[in-house]
Amino acid sequence: MKEIVVASGKGGTGKTSFVGCFAALAGDAVVADCDVDAPDLHLLLSPAVRRTEDFSGGECAFVDADACTGCGKCEEACRFEAILTASAATDPGAVRVVDPLSCEGCGVCAQVCPVSAIELRSVVNGQWFVSETRFGPLVHARLGIAESNSGKLVALVREQARSVAEEAERDLILVDGSPGIGCPVIASLTGADLALLVTEPTRSGIHDLTRVAELCDGLGLPCAVCVNRWDLNPEITDEVEAWCQDRGHMTAGRVPYDETVTGAQIEGLSVVEHSNGPAASAIIEVWNRVAKSVGIADEEVG
Fold first, then answer.
1. Phi, psi of 246 (to 5 degrees)
2. What is the distance between the alpha carbons of residues 34 and 41, in angstroms, rounded to a whole number?
3. Taking a C-beta distance cutoff of 8 angstroms, is the pair 23, 29 a contact?
4. d(Cα 280, Cα 270) in Å, to the nearest integer?
5. How many angstroms separate the CA atoms of 46 and 199, rounded?
6. Which of 87, 46, 90 is nearest to 65 (CA)?
7. Helix, strand, coil content of the chain in percent (nearest 5)
8. Which domains occur in the chain, in start order?
9. Which of residues 301 and 47 earns the better pLDDT score?
10. Cβ atoms of residues 161 and 128 within 8 Å
11. What percent of the chain stands above pLDDT 70?
12. Counting CB atoms within 10 angstroms of each CB, which of 24, 106, 111, 189 has the fewest?
């Protein structure tokens, strides 16, 4: 089984559009949307949800109002200012309550409480789904508002995608990775066969590409680079490709700016389904190079 992760050093480079196109071109892959903080692959794949599960990746403190003496030690110890006086009470000895949106579940308050009135409880941080699309299974997830632990949820999504692939006897997993270089990105990349890094021809694009490529190097993960909307700044595109050559990273191709991409998104389609314009043709070439590099294509997609 092969696993290809499409990632980027920053949001907005077009990685989700690439994954949607690759799903259409591969035809028999399992797709995983690991951008759980802001998932939007469903907008292109229109999934029908077959399974829904709650995700619990952390804990929150709860105060037993009957046991609380109002000493205030928990409030003093909480660096996240998550401990508040109950209701509108102003008495220093008032019972304390926990703001769940501010609590990080560190447990310091429970440790300092002299009467053991505080306990940590598991909480639901979001949901994950197994769905069916016109291209096959999709495993995706959604964090709740202001919830954290997205790295754990990403790892769970990938684990479930592998289970679905084994059950469906599919040999390829396509992952829409999280942007940036934080914990969710590390969880998206670890153990994959190839990372396709999608960048844009801007100074910030180069900076963020460098960071995520260094992360791949640290993980021992081969990576290829594609410049999206390359014709908006050909000089920087040349600079990106020269950097790739110096670092030994494969250049997967260039994709030009093409208004048909927006048209495809409006219709809820990948651009390779929508048209045979310049962007679609370039993405097909990128896919052929990527598929060949991981040994999953005997012949090119035309």
1. -65, -35
2. 10
3. yes
4. 9
5. 26
6. 87
7. 35, 25, 35
8. 2-56+127-293 (3.40.50.300), 58-123 (3.30.70.20)
9. 47
10. no
11. 96
12. 111
**Structure tokens given for 268:** 């809820």
pLDDT band at 299 (very low <50, low <70, confident <90, very high): low
Residue 94 has pLDDT above 90, yes or no: no
Tokens in use for 255? Answer: 């994709």
Listed in sequence order, the residues at least 6 apart from 63 whose beta carbon sits closer than 8 Å to its beta carbon are: 74, 95, 96, 97, 98, 117, 118
Asked whether the beta carbons of 186 and 154 are under 8 A apart, the reply is no
pLDDT (tens digit per residue) in 244-271: 999 999 999 999 999 999 999 999 999 9
Tokens matching residue 85:
């006086």
**C-alpha to C-alpha distances, 272 to 27, 32, 263, 285, 299, nearest whole angstrom:** 12, 19, 12, 11, 18
Structure tokens at 33: 């949307």
From residue 39, how far is each of 79, 144, 153, 178, 213 by CA, in Å?
31, 12, 12, 9, 23
- Antiparallel, parallel or unpaired: β 58-63 and 136-143: unpaired
pLDDT tier, 296 (very low <50, low <70, confident <90, very high otherwise): confident
The region that residue 12 occupies, defined by phi over 0 for left and psi between -120 and 50 for alpha, beta otherwise, is left
Q: What is the average pLDDT score of the chain?
A: 92
Q: What are the phi and psi torsion angles at 146 (to 5°)?
A: 65, 15
